[in-house]
Every structure is written in structure tokens, then in C-alpha cells.
Specification:
It is a single chain. The protein is mainly alpha-helical. It has a single domain, classed as Four Helix Bundle (Hemerythrin (Met), subunit A) (Up-down Bundle), CATH 1.20.120. The protein has six helices and no strands. Helix 1 runs antiparallel to helix 5. The longest helix is centred in the N-terminal third of the chain and has 43 residues.
Amino acid sequence: MKRELAAAALLLLLIAGAVWNLHSADRLNETVERSLHRAEVSARHGDYEAALTALENGRQVWDAHGTYTQIFFRHPDLDAIQDAFHGLEERFLQEDPAWPAALGLLRYHLYTVDEMEHVTVGTVF
């Protein structure tokens, strides 16, 4: 009977950890997305300095969670996100009208790493 209780407790602990991880990934991406939204609004109004500031805030939030992301996300995905941050920053610095594409790429990468954490039939099998 003790083995079954220990197994059940371990299973509940694993489920709680998975739920915590899902919540943490969602919260991180929501926080970064708020910064990206501010950057987008600023850039649409031609205020590239404010857009850069908002983008840097988003990058700081992302970088502050580096230990978490290094453990739970795939490294190629993390590299793609860093590259996308840099690409968007370059577009803002140059006041390049192609910045919406760079922003879309960054959002896509953030969305995909977040979606990989969600449990679906595709992620289980």
C-alpha cells in the first residue's frame, strides 16, 4: 500500500510541476508580448526611440528568465528568439518600414515555444 501511495504522490507532484511550467511559460510570454505591443504602437506612430525602449524591456524580461528558458525550451528555439529580437532591434534603429515582418517573426517564435509547452495529442505521441 505504501508503494501505491508513493507512486500516486509522485504522479501528483509531476502533474503539479507540469501545470506550474505551463503557467510560467504563459506568464513569461504574456509579459514579453505586452512589451512588444507597446513597441508596435510606438513604431506605428513613428516613435522609434520609444519602440526600442519597449523592445529592450521585453528583451530584459526574456533574459531575466534565462535559467528557466535554458532548462525548459529547446536551444535552437532560444537562438531563433534571440536572433528575432536582434533583427527587430535593427529594423527599429534603421527606421526600416519592414519592421512589421521582423515583429511578426519574433511573435511567431515566442508563440511556438509557448505552444510546445501545452499538452496536445501531438506533443504526447
